[in-house]
Amino acid sequence: MKVLKYLKPYWIFAVLCPLAMILEVSMDLLQPTLMSDIVDNGILGTAGADENLRYILITGLKMLAFSIIGAIGGIASAAFGTTAAQKMGNDLRKATFSKVMHLSFQQTDKFTTGSLVTRLTNDISAIQEFVAMSLRMFVRTGMQFIGGIAVILTLNVNFGLVLVISLPVQLIVLAVIMKKAAPLFSVVQTKLDKVNSVVQENVSGARVVKAFTREEYEINRFDNANSELMTTNLKVQKLLATLNPILMVIMNASVIAIIMIGGFQVEARAMMVGDVMAAVTYITQILMSVMMVGMMFQQVSRATASMKRVNEVLNTTPTVTDGKGTVPEQNSGTVELRDVSFSYPGSSGKPVLSHISLKAQKGQMIALLGATGCGKTSLVNLIPRFYDATEGEVLVDGVNVRDYNVDALRSKIGFVLQKSELFSGTVSENIRWGCETATDEEIRTAAGIAQAEEFINGFNDGYDTMISEKGASLSGGQKQRMAIARAIVKKPEILIFDDSTSALDLSTEAKLHKAMRENLSGVTIIMIAQRIASVMRADKIAVLENGSICAFGTHDELMKTSDVYRDIYYSQMKQGEGETVNG
Fold it and tell me: Which H/E stretch holds residue 70?
């Protein structure tokens, strides 16, 4: 499978591991024969007490020496196997995470966050455990099985009758139980996906859960998902729990049979007592190796399901890929949509956007205004290729965005999302996220333009203040201003605001617009807003209705020509749009 190619760079460890295991098993296979010699030639020997004791001591020292050599082989095998598995798992996890980072929004939505988390953690851990086990245990079980059979038949051919009867029974039991259990491992992983999804949703949406007092509902939802996981796990474990007792019964019955056959052979003076003891040990090793195969099949079944799930991610081709066009040397910062239509993948019915044509010149501020669900966010998502247009063209600096290298395209664009996502770290680290080479002065400048400097300086540690995960320690307005500063420090040609000033009061927003006009005069700004007061200063305003642009012009022009714009304006003015929303 594709995931196993990540073991190739560590082939030396993968080869040394079974070689060391061969050494350990070889020493184990010698022990019963040496024990047989001690019994027959030492304890029951006829050479005299002193000679017998001397033979016992010398043979015992050989057994001890072989045990030490075997232990060294076992330790080396475990070390080599673990190293190979951990290094492979490290590379596989990084490769899978890298693939996830390059998937489009529609592809990550298809997998779901909970499932991707499970694949990157639980599934890859299962693959690691399988590799570590298989490098050692396949060799151990194979050598014990074949070597044990070879030696026990040399002791007495009659012992082969026990093997002829017991081995098929063991294998049939093993096959029946594993056939029933194997499909359930995939179901277990799917149930684990669901548990992770519920946890992820509730951790990220904890404030909403508490605000609507839905704790009990979410606890019940988690209980249901967790109970389904437990029920499926129990079903698998109950099946597997029957395996070892049945195999142990078969093994013990085989040992009894060996003792009976050996007893008759000793009585007939056809073999020695020590050989019978050795045969008991070898039959135990042979049948134990079959039991180990059963345990290995549990790992194999689980690992196979996990490999399939990880391969699904690795084999997914990102729908948004680098173009092969020529990127213009001169950066103008223009954005143009030519007869663009867009529908979300898998959706049916009327397109979200229909025949949109719009152009923003370098340094212009273009505002998008319209009712919720009219397609504003969908429109701006096409510019950095979060999604691709279904029809028409989206151009940046006169070049179709499909022709750009994705990183080169997005390096031109600063995007302030509707939901301000911050990361655990300091204030300066969060702002520098927009440009990792930004100096402290550039960070302060960006924060000043974003109207964030005042509240940052109010922190005890200023720009070194630690921000908790997702910015939970900040207010909505503070998070928005931090996100704006992060986009500004990037020094983009195009700056997109996806309704990202909604938590700012009008006074702070006015200062933000003033600072941007003074400091970002050459930057093209595309702004989505719900408030008329936020867009009145724009060079051009596009009014969207039902996925189409129904009006386009300045505030004054739209007040004269657009009924929709006037309705929005008067409805907001009557509701007291001048009231501030504290952030």
Answer: helix 49-102
Tell me the residue length of the chain.
Answer: 583
Q: Are 275 and 40 in contact (CB under 8 A)?
A: yes
Check if the beta carbon of residue 138 is closer than 8 Å to that of residue 296: yes
Among residues 546, 548, 569, which one has the least CA distance to residue 557? 569
Which residue, among 478, 483, 475, has the nearest Cα to 423 in the 3D structure?
Answer: 483
C-alpha span between 77 and 245 (Å, rounded): 29
- Rounded Cα distance between 31 and 71, Å, is 13
Single out the residue of 520, 568, 572, 580 nearest to residue 542, CA to CA. Answer: 568
The conformational region for residue 204 under phi > 0 = left, psi -120 to 50 = alpha, else beta, is alpha
Residue carrying structure tokens 């969207």:
544
Q: How far apart are CA 378 and CA 350, in angstroms?
A: 14
404: nearest Cα among 392, 390, 394: 394
Q: Both tokens of residue 63?
A: 């057994």
Task: Name the pairing type of β-strands 540-545 and 524-528.
Answer: unpaired
CA–CA separation, 500 vs 385, rounded Å? 19
Six token digits for residue 65: 């020496």
From 342, 220, 241, select the one nearest 295 (Cα to Cα). Answer: 241
Task: Check: pTM over 0.90? Answer yes or no.
Answer: no
Residues 365-418 pLDDT 10s: 999 998 888 888 899 999 998 888 999 999 998 889 998 888 888 888 999 888
Closest CA to 3 of 108, 133, 116, 90: 90
- Using the Cα atoms of residue 67, residue 69, residue 75 and residue 78 in order, give the sign of their dihedral: negative
Task: Give the span between the Cα atoms of 182 and 159, in whole angstroms.
Answer: 34
β-bridge mates for residue 542, sequence order: 368, 552
Class of residue 142 by CB neighbours under 10 A (exposed 0-12, middle 13-18, buried 19+): middle
What is the per-residue pLDDT across 268-323, written as a single tens digit (0 to 9) for each? 777 788 888 888 888 888 888 877 777 777 777 778 888 888 898 888 888 777 77
Q: CB count, 10 Å around CB of 311?
A: 15
- Token pair 């003792």 is at which residue? 259
Q: How far apart are CA 41 and CA 273, in angstroms?
A: 10
Helices (H), 119-158: 124-155
Q: How many CB atoms lie within 10 A of CB 52?
A: 17
Q: Which helix (H) or strand (E) holds 223?
A: helix 215-241
Token digits of residue 72: 């060294």
d(CA 474, CA 430): 13
The answer to whether 137 and 210 have CB atoms below 8 angstroms apart is: no
Question: Which of 48-52, 183-187, 483-487, 566-570 is the most confident on average?
Answer: 483-487
